[in-house]
Design brief:
Pathway: Cell wall biogenesis; peptidoglycan biosynthesis
Radius of gyration: 43 Å
Order of helices and strands: HHHHEEEEEEEEHE
InterPro entries: LD-transpeptidase, LD_TPept_cat_dom, Peptidoglycan-bd-like, PGBD-like_sf, PGBDSf, Transpep_catalytic_dom
Keywords: Cell shape, Cell wall biogenesis/degradation, Peptidoglycan synthesis, Signal, Transferase
Pfam family, one: PG_binding_1
Oligomer: single chain
CATH topology of one domain: L,D-transpeptidase catalytic domain-like
Protein name: L,D-transpeptidase family protein
CATH class of one domain: Mainly Beta
CATH superfamily of one domain: L,D-transpeptidase catalytic domain-like
Largest sheet: 5 strands, mixed
Length: about 290
């Protein structure tokens, strides 16, 4: 009789144990779409972000045997403060001035004559004002690098512009495009008045001399394709023998090369002359490019 009771108790205990294990298994019908389930062993001991070191967001975490915190000494050492504002480590070095070129006085002289680039002092010594004026001049006429140095190219361009005689071009009643082949400069007149101040150009090189004379713009195209040379000619204004005004595709101040007879212009000047010109605009070329 005792064996039967013991056996019954063992069976009952096994049934209870099996039912409890089944209740902990993941039930796909209980909701949660696959993101739930029993947590792996030990997962609850390390919640996301927790570590062995107590962080500032875990102030309530008990410590079995807390160690006394180290107090600040009664006579703390002075902390290292930031260097004073006048220290060399915090004050930015003064901006380096523009390098002085070998043509300093000449460039100062020409810029003073031209005006419009800021104050300059004609003394042959670089100053902050001289630097700013020279940089502005270089940027305007596409001289690279535009660092404010009064070098040979800057001096040459300034001299050509300062010595251009706008009255040497015989203007018509309407708009006239004038080209000084000797000085390699271009300007525009209307009714005898200057409507575009002299700017730089580069005309035909040796073997492709741009001829002097009086012509007329007879064809225009904002973007012309050159068949023989396979290059685009932006703001094209033709006046004679396949020659015309257009924006240059190379560095304008490279004197070792030149055009095949065309009048090369900087972008800003090509755009301005396109705005001023039209079919029928008078074109006057005087002088001759040196070396041609």
């Amino acid at each position: 009789m005792k064996r039967v009771r013991i056996t019954s108790r063992l069976v009952a205990l096994m049934v209870v144990t099996l039912v409890g294990a089944g209740a902990c298994a993941f039930d796909p019908q209980a909701g949660g779409g696959g993101g739930g389930g029993a947590a792996p062993a030990g997962a609850a001991e390390n919640p996301t972000g927790a570590s062995d070191t107590t962080g500032p967001d875990q102030r309530g975490r008990p410590t079995p045997t807390p160690k006394p915190t180290r107090t600040t000494p009664s006579t703390p050492k002075p902390t290292r403060s930031a260097p004073p504002a006048t220290s060399a480590s915090t004050v930015k070095p003064a901006a380096a001035g523009c390098p002085q070129g070998e043509q300093q006085r000449a460039v100062e002289t020409y810029l003073a004559q031209l005006g419009g680039f800021g104050p300059v002092t004609v003394d042959g010594r670089q100053s902050a004002a001289d630097c700013a004026a020279i940089k502005k001049f270089q940027r305007r006429y596409g001289i690279s690098p535009a660092e404010g140095r009064a070098g040979p190219t800057t001096s040459d361009v300034a001299k050509r512009l300062a010595t251009t005689d706008t009255a040497s071009c015989k203007a018509g009643k309407g708009t006239t495009f004038c080209v000084d082949l000797t000085r390699q400069t271009v300007w525009a007149l209307r009714g005898g008045k200057v409507i575009m101040a002299p700017t730089v150009t580069r005309t035909g090189m040796s073997g492709y001399r741009t001829p002097s004379g009086t012509y007329t713009v007879n064809y225009r195209n904002p973007k012309e394709w050159s068949d023989p040379y396979e290059v685009w000619l932006p703001y094209w204004q033709h006046f004679t023998q396949g020659m015309g005004f257009h924006e240059t595709t190379t560095y304008l101040h490279n004197k070792s090369i030149g055009s095949h007879g065309c009048v090369n212009l900087l972008h800003v000047d090509a755009v301005r002359m396109w705005e001023l010109g039209k079919v029928g605009t008078r074109v006057v070329l005087i002088g001759r490019r040196p070396g041609t």
